[in-house]
Specification:
Helix content of chain A: under 10%
Helix content of chain B: 25-40%
Distance between the termini of chain A: 33 Å
Number of helices of chain A: 1
Order of helices and strands of chain A: EEHEEEEE
Strand content of chain A: 25-35%
Largest interface: A-B, 37 and 43 residues
Shape of chain B: globular
Shape of chain A: globular
Largest sheet of chain B: 7 strands, mixed
Number of strands of chain A: 7
Number of helices of chain B: 12
Strand content of chain B: 15-25%
Number of strands of chain B: 21
Strand order of the largest sheet of chain A: 2-1-7-5-6
Radius of gyration of chain B: 21 Å
Oligomer: heterodimer
Structural class of chain A: mainly beta
Chain lengths: 82, 414
């Protein structure tokens, strides 16, 4: 069993396997709508590999992070819908 | 203050091509650095969390033993002057001087717009695979896999193996083309075994050729898709649509450096040299050819970058892989009907929410940018560029730094 890390997603606690991407943590928490587009449409991840920027979130206060490229760390705070 | 590094050979990209290039250059005695955006080596095809896939292991060991240095989590954003790259790593600038540069920046998926393609839950086919490999769970989720290319079967198989309920796989290419490709594969035993393995792993999900998704529907996330073969339509309920239309090379850095491209590929000579002195290219940049093509072109580029002669055997293997790549492109060529899926009100540029109807096909990408901001968002045209090239015949526009959005202070820092 892989080690599990604790993070919060929009204030809600979540347990995630170490080594997962932040995007995978969101996905496993049931979050499909990750951000709102410039005209307010619901958007979620598309490419999964750092190209499309649809999965960008705020991580520990740093905005516009591509959640697919970031690896989870214990205690991380993730905010969606930036 | 910038961190500064200097190497004889710098390789950008840690997939198979980059691993082969860096290993060969370092083994040939060059002071070599492998620079990668990902947290772990292997690129998209060998993406992993804990244990790398079997095929990758030998190369990761070889790289470690070659003496090449590696920097991970670094995104190249500019080439401010000849012989220098500027990268961003954890929000800080990193300047890297090089004598020879090997570009191995790989490929990305092609996404074609259709009604509903912007709904959450609609992901790339490779995108779904990347999600899964980075820890996302798909157990009990109903997944439709669609689009085009050999990747679809691989993705369906890996999803099924991880508990997803694969509703169906819809390949736009007609059976007659695929049959010709299948016959060609008979002469390439290694590759057909791979294909069969994917089929067996699919656990009974239907594979339909000459069929594609016309629309995705749902409120705030995909709930169903409409699939068609051009005559009849069928609606299928799903939780995820994994849809991609093949791959295109990531040419942005090459074009920023001034390297010539033609027909969507990097122009390369027999030693993988670009048209810019000191800059070489390997892997998918020279044409979508898969992992074997990436490994052989990476090896050639690494040797050439280190000033070594290229063995004849490698050159012959490259020719074989190039023939395979050409066959692959022909078999999975995109059908005209896919152009008609994108309606006037369908969003093409997802960053700026620009629908197709606002883009003048006669105006070209530059005018589209100026008038609509299409291609000016964070992805900088990486998604809408290939789509508009297919829909309107747009040639790629000019590439300007930064290649990815960064804090302006990072660029100004000297």
């Amino acid at each position: 069993m892989a080690e599990r890390l604790r993070l919060t997603i929009d204030g809600q606690p979540a347990l995630v396997e170490a080594g997962s991407s932040v995007l995978a943590a969101l996905w496993n928490a049931g979050v499909r709508r990750v951000r709102a587009s410039v005209s307010g449409e619901a958007r979620g991840p598309l490419c999964g590999m750092g190209i499309c920027f649809e999965c960008r979130v705020t991580i520990d206060g740093a905005r516009h992070c591509r959640s697919c490229l970031a690896t989870v760390r214990d205690g991380m705070e993730v905010r969606t819908r930036e | 203050v910038s961190e500064r590094l200097a190497f004889g050979v710098v390789v950008v990209g840690g997939g198979p091509a980059g691993l082969a290039a860096a290993s060969h250059a370092a083994e040939a005695g060059a002071r070599t650095l492998l620079l990668d955006e990902a947290a772990r080596p292997g690129g998209q095809i060998w993406r992993h969390r804990a244990e790398p896939p079997v095929a990758a292991r030998a190369w990761l060991v070889r790289l470690a033993q070659s003496g090449a240095a590696t920097v991970r989590g670094a995104t190249v954003v500019d080439a401010p002057r000849p012989g220098e790259l500027l990268a961003e790593r954890e929000g800080r600038p990193l300047r890297i001087a090089f004598d020879r540069l090997v570009l191995a920046t790989g490929a990305r998926e092609v996404f074609l717009p259709f009604p509903g393609w912007t709904l959450p839950g609609v992901v790339g086919a490779g995108g779904a695979q990347a999600l899964l490999k980075s820890g996302a769970h798909f157990e009990q989720q109903r997944v439709v896999v669609a689009g085009s290319g050999p990747l679809l079967l691989a993705v369906a198989a890996v999803l099924a193996r991880h508990g997803a309920r694969v509703v169906g796989v819809f390949e736009q290419a007609p059976l007659v083309r695929l049959a010709a490709f299948g016959a060609f594969l008979l002469g390439h035993p290694g590759k057909i075994v791979e294909g069969l393995g994917h089929r067996l792993g699919m656990a009974g999900a239907p594979y339909r050729t000459g069929a594609w998704v016309r629309a995705a529907e749902g409120k705030d996330r995909v709930e169903r898709v409409v699939v068609t073969d051009g005559r009849r339509e069928r609606t299928l309920g799903c939780d995820v649509l994994a849809c991609g239309f093949g791959l295109v090379p990531n040419l942005e850095l090459a074009r920023l450096l001034g390297c010539e491209t033609a027909a969507g590929r990097l122009s390369l000579d027999e030693e993988q040299r670009t048209t810019v002195p000191g800059v070489l290219g390997a892997g998918e940049l020279g044409g979508i050819g898969g992992v074997d093509h990436a490994l052989v072109t990476g090896a050639i580029a690494g040797l050439a970058a280190a000033g070594r002669a290229v063995p004849r055997a490698l050159a012959r293997r490259r020719e074989r892989e190039r023939r395979f790549a050409a066959r692959l492109a022909r078999a999975f060529a995109l059908r005209d009907e896919l152009r008609g899926l994108c309606r006037e009100d369908t969003i093409v540029c997802r960053c700026e929410d620009v629908p197709l109807g606002r883009i003048d096909p006669r105006g070209g990408p530059r005018q589209a940018k100026l008038l609509t901001r299409a291609g000016m968002g964070p992805c900088q045209g990486r998604v809408c560029g290939p789509a508009l090239s297919f829909l309107c015949g747009f040639e790629p526009g000019s590439v300007r730094p930064p290649l990815f959005p960064v804090d302006l202070a990072l660029l100004e820092d000297e």
